Amino acid sequence: MEISGGRGDDDRMRLEVTSMLARVGDDAEGRSSVEEQLDYVSGRLIQDASRYGGTAQYWEVVRKALILCGNELAHKVGMYSTVVALIAGVSEEGRMTAERVANGTSGLMITAIRDGQLNKALQALKFLCELCNVWVVSWEWLMETLRSLLEAAVADRRPFQLHARSQMLVDLIASALPWGARGLKRGDSDEFDSFVDELLGCLDQQLEDESAWSSGLLPSRGTLFTFRPRILRAALDDLAARGWNSGAMPRWDDGSLSSRLESGPELTLRTVQIPSHSKVSRYSPPSFICTLSSDKPEESGQNDRKRKGPIEQLLLRDTATNILDNFRQKHLEGAIKMLSLPIPMDANQEVVDATFTEMCALPSSHQPQVFYGATFMDLCRVPNSRLSIRLLKAVQLVYDKLGQLDPEVFDRLSDWLAFHLSNFSFHWNWANWAACGTAQARDRIPYKRIFCRDVLDHVCRLSYRDKIVGIVPDKLHSLIPPAVESLPARSTDEDEVKVVELISGSDRKAPPELKARLMGIYGDDQYEQILRGLFAAILRAVQAILSHFDAMMERYISVVNELIALTGREKATRVVMDELWRLWPALPLRCVTYVDKLCTYQVLNPLDVINYLLSIDGLSKEELIDKMETSGVWELMRLLMSRQRSRVQSAKADASTAARFAASATEAEADMASEKLKEAKLGVETVLEATRKMIWNAIGGLNVVHTTLSEGIEDSMEETENGAPEQKIPVWEWRVLGFCKEVIRKNTSVVEANIGDFDEFLQSGPVHAKFRETIQPLKTLALSDLTDSVI
User: Bridge-partner residues for 716, per DSSP?
Assistant: First the structure.
């Protein structure tokens, strides 16, 4: 029966086609083999063409559905290329649709390259490679495209400097080549070998840049993470030694369908124009891959491990990464897909590796951290999954090497583990961590002690203190945040109680009367003391319910602002932060939230808060070291920098909106549109200047702290994994230098626009040699057109 009609019929057609394609291969263990399903689906697509009247609209729906599935369902890309090939061999409409699918995918790849999105570009290029394998696309066209990409990568590479786009393009080609080698080998073998030699030469050049990229982007020293070009080089060598054939991914072009596929059209598509590098574009950073699977083979999986060489591990990790990226809205479904890859080998460890790689990626992960927590939770809950065993061993391996981690990655992992444990009733081998609570832990196992303390802090945030005290061994109780009631009493507590009565309850005072009553308690001109007493009372009054803080601040903001003006901004910041710092040990998350809200109310200035956190005034070396080892300092600094980046993005978005309005304004709107655009541009300049000041203010403060604590301290040595001596890094120095790297790698666009600040900083005052060694390579990193945002 012919179906035609209105909008509802179009929607039904689109849903039917897309749903059928999305399900292909999911029931391969059931009633039919994959080959039978592919044959059935391609036949249905041809039959439904007559059912829908053979319209161009129907074939456009098929084209869009195939492009969507081929690029979004990476683990089934070979299936979709086979479906495209089967319909191309049946009718002229099928052949034209296949050509449009290939050209559309090529366009997606170019767009992703222009936008610096490596993962999206790689998924598109993989699909094109598979289309070549099944004789839809000619090997000549694919080779020409790969050569154009390689030429662009070589042209982008600048002498003695890094270039993120060049790195990205070489990664794109090398990652896709294993998927396209089968089709390319049908052509001129000498041309293929020559191309591979050129690609390997580019990879070798990238290996020479490893130390430069590592200076700011390496998640961990040692063997936990490996530079991706090194992995790509080993995988391609492995694949070449096997004659460019790997069993990591199944094929359907050499079975029962092979004779039909071999008569494919071998299309020569439009020549791909690689977009030239633009200074307004920024590009994905080079990856450092978590290689836990290569570090300790599983005893139970020795046979599997022997079958998996570098090429299998690369393909499995990449496929798991693609699934993570494409199922970000449905992480449970993504977890099931990762654990049911259509491959004849166990991929659990590669799934763990891929998820850890994404979670620990610098300068930022592709998804919010909670996404990876939810993914690991789902992976462990999939029926019959043994991934939890691999994950437990991976955590233990990382735990034994915590001192090698970048501080930001260290904090991400402690936060993730706390979230993970909170979803499994806090079941953990806590007894194995008991040594972290001993008096000797700070000197003997400092990084494990801090990690354990941070995990306990975060699980208390996700539960409540008394419950955690009842779960963990007694030896760890000293690392649990103290109860608020246990904080030392103050001499002013009696006055504070009086102020609490004035600002809370049914008899609370209005702002004018409150001010007069405060002066009666503390004295008419004791503005600093009045501000301290009022703010301490506010914190006490809202201690039970966080939402009351907003109501209290809105009610008395006029009094607070007046007292700040009378006290002076610098003193007022110290007064407010002192009160927060007193509560910090017991309520770290609450205090971070308070600071964030106070910055929103403009009671605190983020720059002043950073100055307070990095201040050395009145502190002994021991007190300063304690402060620098407090994770809350870095959590708050990270929050303030993140909020500032959000202001930059918001200002730029407003400017883009104003520019679009100005471009389409009528004659009557022209003056108003021009004025709005001018204001928006000024807003961008203002927020960028504030960001620049915050960056170098933070780096300057970090330098002062480092210089102060380095005086009179001799370097000590420790033994590394391979037995070689290595300089021992104290926790405070690891934190200070690590945050310096973090500030720059997360703000490369702002730093690059004001690159002269680097030289000015290094020449303007005393900079300790180790601090200089840390910051100097970051200048090159900032000039590499590296993205500082998630793409």
Answer: 728
